[in-house]
Design a protein that fits this description.
By secondary structure, the chain is an alpha+beta fold. It has helices at about 5-15, 40-60, 75-80, 90-100, 110-115, 150-160, 175-180, and strands at about 25-35, 125-135, 135-140, 165-175. The protein has seven helices and four strands. Strands 2-3-1-4 form a four-stranded antiparallel sheet.
Length: about 180
């Protein structure tokens, strides 16, 4: 699925603030996340990494072998093999990812290249995140109505940000999202 630059700009805006219900797709996909950390810290971590990745998607050519990583938080770079000190929450999330997905860790550059506008493999766009319990958040994405799509790069981020468990994606009516409170 191609992501046009204007679409990436809109996605970047949704990372920063809750989108309007006007213009929302009729169906979203949701990932239910049980966090091992404070949900608000978790949400900030996820948003920070996505902001940096989408900034690269909007501004970089993706023609070089390596993308700049200055805006990527150290904890995420370390979890993705490009940093020195892995945070405890991230180390635990990496273990959880391996147990759940049975795949190897994502290399930082490999992960960042998933946001190349010409990459047809990223089958989702960020929509919102809501807190639904003491240690539970819901991550909402637009998958263009598809219930099955490539999303392991998102799972990697969700786990390494401090998730104990990530389930989904599940299709959900947009009205369900509209009734929930956006996480800060």
């Amino acid at each position: 699925m191609l992501h046009e630059i204007d679409d990436l700009r809109q996605e970047r805006q949704r990372v920063e603030a809750r989108p309007s219900t006007e213009g929302a797709p009729p169906v979203l996909t949701v990932f239910d996340v049980v966090t091992a950390v404070d949900p608000q810290d978790y949400i900030r971590r996820v948003r920070t990494v996505l902001s940096a990745a989408l900034d690269l998607a909007i501004t970089e050519s993706f023609d070089d072998e390596d993308l700049p990583t200055e805006g990527i938080p150290e904890w995420f770079a370390a979890a993705s093999g490009a940093g020195s000190e892995t945070a405890e929450f991230s180390r635990r999330g990496t273990d959880r990812y391996h147990a759940a997905v049975n795949e190897k860790s994502w290399d930082l550059q490999w992960w960042l290249f998933e946001f190349d506008p010409d990459n047809e493999f990223r089958g989702w766009a960020w929509w919102d995140v809501t807190q639904v319990g003491d240690r539970q958040v819901r991550v909402w994405t637009d998958s263009w109505g598809e219930s099955f799509f490539a999303c392991d790069e998102l799972r990697w981020l969700l786990y390494t940000a401090g998730a104990d468990e990530v389930s989904g994606p599940f299709l959900a009516d947009t009205s369900e999202w509209a009734q929930e409170i956006t996480g800060q």
